[in-house]
Amino acid sequence: MEGSVRVRFAPSPTGLLHIGGLRTALYNYLFAKGHRDGVFVLRIEDTDQARYVEGAENDIVESLEWAGLNVDEGPGKGGEFGPYRQSERKERYEQYAEQLVEQGHAYYAFDTPVELEDMRERLKKSGNPSPKYDAITRMSMKNSLTLPREEVDRILEEGEEYVIRLKVPRRETIRFEDEIRGFVSFESKGLDDQVLLKSDGMPTYHLANVVDDHLMEITDVIRGEEWLSSAPKHILMYEYFGWEPPRMAHLPLIMSPSGGKLSKRKAESEGIPINTRDYIEQEFEPEALVNFLAYLGWSPGDDSELHTMDELIELFALDRVSKGGAVFDYKKLIWYNEHYLREKPAEQLYPRVKAIAEEHGLSPDEAYLKEIIPLMKDRVSKIEDFVTMGRFFFEDPEEYEEQALKKWKDNSAELLGAYVGKLKEMDEEEFEAGKLKDKIKEVIGEYDVGFGPLMMPLRVAVSGMGYGPDLTPTIELLGKETTIRRIETAIKRLG
């Protein structure tokens, strides 16, 4: 590909960064980094002041950093195409909107909100289900196309409120090539005369977007499918300005497991965290979320599923992004998380597990905790499980899980009693996994039962649960005194 690639991630700071936004950022990043000298720009589209949320920009920046998507240019980062917040670029948009008016491709509209509402009501009554301000209705409205020139000049001079609207042609087919969907065409009669400049002098998304993509020399616009219907308006503006439009790619929707788009409401009902912040707070492994999101609408074309960021950069291509929606499979995300947790050495996990333990009111000894981590690693799905599932390493179980109690049979107390007898005869130094297993074999040999009838109630007695890490190394780590105490308590309580 000739020339260097420049892409942008351009979120609006109207709330926390949505998981779909993070995927869009990721695809832009992978695409840029997969090309020599590719540049990944962050642009904050904060022109909608009414919907601006304090702290949202900060959340976007922190979320991208957490996920390892390092921005080359953006707010606080600098770059020769700044400023990178649209609210700081206001004058530029005004000048370009006026240019379109002068060229006859846009016009001033003076209609009040009441007049616009009347127009919609009138059209609805005459059988138009989705009325809009367009090539037909504009001629019965109050704008610089219907009013005499002197009247227009007078209104502008007196400082009355107005907006600038794009003059969309009545009968035109607008075609462009989408990098993912191939050729796409729209009929202009389906488009409204989009407001470009609002009455407060702020641009709408559409004008600011086109002007900034041109001025920032963006070569490829990779964004969500919801912007596909806006693309023809953008293509028209590029044509009117006489600019070369960037290549465009519209990514597939993220779907809910129960069907339909993954909305906030659906995500909540299905237990899927919807904002990147949730994943940070729940201490997901960032590599797991990145790997999972990469595959949410793209695949390298083979059976591989696990890739580092560098490998994803190497493999990623837009022609392998699907057109159809991608279903958010939370179980698959957990599978990725388990994988990346297991890959990390205990040394690296220790400070995080220690912090979680302290949050839970525990203050474990460093050496002890470093022995628990490798033992638990193959059993946990998320880092907090080291503490929540492994709580029995720090304190005796106060109660026994209901499911686990089903494993407690009529002969359980007798078998455990026999095992305790053998443990009491052991010296501290011989209290290790291999010998503990031998003692289990002795008991089941003497009572002529299988492993299950002793192992199951033994696990319940020492941990309170019916599952967990390898049993004999666990008992070794708990130590002789603790193990005997817990078994005797269980015999007393469960009989």
UniProtKB/TrEMBL annotation:
<dbReference type="GO" id="GO:0005524">
    <property type="term" value="F:ATP binding"/>
</dbReference>
<dbReference type="InterPro" id="IPR045462">
    <property type="entry name" value="aa-tRNA-synth_I_cd-bd"/>
</dbReference>
<dbReference type="Pfam" id="PF19269">
    <property type="entry name" value="Anticodon_2"/>
</dbReference>
<comment type="function">
    <text>Catalyzes the attachment of glutamate to tRNA(Glu) in a two-step reaction: glutamate is first activated by ATP to form Glu-AMP and then transferred to the acceptor end of tRNA(Glu).</text>
</comment>
<feature type="short sequence motif" description="'KMSKS' region">
    <location>
        <begin position="261"/>
        <end position="265"/>
    </location>
</feature>
<keyword id="KW-0030">Aminoacyl-tRNA synthetase</keyword>
<comment type="subunit">
    <text>Monomer.</text>
</comment>
<dbReference type="InterPro" id="IPR000924">
    <property type="entry name" value="Glu/Gln-tRNA-synth"/>
</dbReference>
<dbReference type="InterPro" id="IPR014729">
    <property type="entry name" value="Rossmann-like_a/b/a_fold"/>
</dbReference>
<dbReference type="GO" id="GO:0006424">
    <property type="term" value="P:glutamyl-tRNA aminoacylation"/>
</dbReference>
<dbReference type="InterPro" id="IPR020058">
    <property type="entry name" value="Glu/Gln-tRNA-synth_Ib_cat-dom"/>
</dbReference>
<dbReference type="InterPro" id="IPR004527">
    <property type="entry name" value="Glu-tRNA-ligase_bac/mito"/>
</dbReference>
<keyword id="KW-0547">Nucleotide-binding</keyword>
<feature type="domain" description="Glutamyl/glutaminyl-tRNA synthetase class Ib catalytic">
    <location>
        <begin position="5"/>
        <end position="335"/>
    </location>
</feature>
<keyword id="KW-0067">ATP-binding</keyword>
<protein>
    <recommendedName>
        <fullName>Glutamate--tRNA ligase</fullName>
        <ecNumber>6.1.1.17</ecNumber>
    </recommendedName>
</protein>
<dbReference type="InterPro" id="IPR008925">
    <property type="entry name" value="aa_tRNA-synth_I_cd-bd_sf"/>
</dbReference>
<dbReference type="InterPro" id="IPR049940">
    <property type="entry name" value="GluQ/Sye"/>
</dbReference>
<feature type="short sequence motif" description="'HIGH' region">
    <location>
        <begin position="11"/>
        <end position="21"/>
    </location>
</feature>
<keyword id="KW-0648">Protein biosynthesis</keyword>
<keyword id="KW-0436">Ligase</keyword>
<dbReference type="GO" id="GO:0008270">
    <property type="term" value="F:zinc ion binding"/>
</dbReference>
<keyword id="KW-0963">Cytoplasm</keyword>
<feature type="domain" description="Aminoacyl-tRNA synthetase class I anticodon-binding">
    <location>
        <begin position="352"/>
        <end position="491"/>
    </location>
</feature>
<dbReference type="GO" id="GO:0004818">
    <property type="term" value="F:glutamate-tRNA ligase activity"/>
</dbReference>
<dbReference type="GO" id="GO:0005737">
    <property type="term" value="C:cytoplasm"/>
</dbReference>
<comment type="similarity">
    <text>Belongs to the class-I aminoacyl-tRNA synthetase family. Glutamate--tRNA ligase type 1 subfamily.</text>
</comment>
<dbReference type="GO" id="GO:0000049">
    <property type="term" value="F:tRNA binding"/>
</dbReference>
<dbReference type="InterPro" id="IPR033910">
    <property type="entry name" value="GluRS_core"/>
</dbReference>
<feature type="binding site">
    <location>
        <position position="264"/>
    </location>
    <ligand>
        <name>ATP</name>
    </ligand>
</feature>
<dbReference type="Pfam" id="PF00749">
    <property type="entry name" value="tRNA-synt_1c"/>
</dbReference>
<dbReference type="InterPro" id="IPR001412">
    <property type="entry name" value="aa-tRNA-synth_I_CS"/>
</dbReference>
<dbReference type="InterPro" id="IPR020751">
    <property type="entry name" value="aa-tRNA-synth_I_codon-bd_sub2"/>
</dbReference>
